[in-house]
Amino acid sequence: MTTTVYIFDSAQLTGSAATYGTVVAALTKRILKSASVTNTTGAPVALIVYLVPTGGTAGAANTVISARTLAAGETYNCPELVGKGLNAGGFLQALGLSLTLSYSATDIT
User: Could you write out the DSSP letters of every residue in 8-62?
Assistant: First the structure.
């Protein structure tokens, strides 16, 4: 078994669900260790995060954070994601217009 640190530096989210970070590689599991989302806009913005299994699409069945409103200038540390896992082929998707997302994880092969 090999473990590696996976870091998704950051990206600005859009108003539509999109994939952030790489799809989990074959024969690998990814365990999320930390995540934060920052609202640098001047208005409240709703955040939605999905942990999508292989072959799946973002939806109610894999929503981990559902319409959590971040105030202007707020940073949210996403405790709902800490310790969650993705199997091979899984991926993280999120939406929240102009919010900035970053996270770290451990990949186990």
Answer: EEEEE--SS-EE-SPPPPTT-EEEEEEEEEEE-SSS-EEEEEEEEPTT--SSGGG
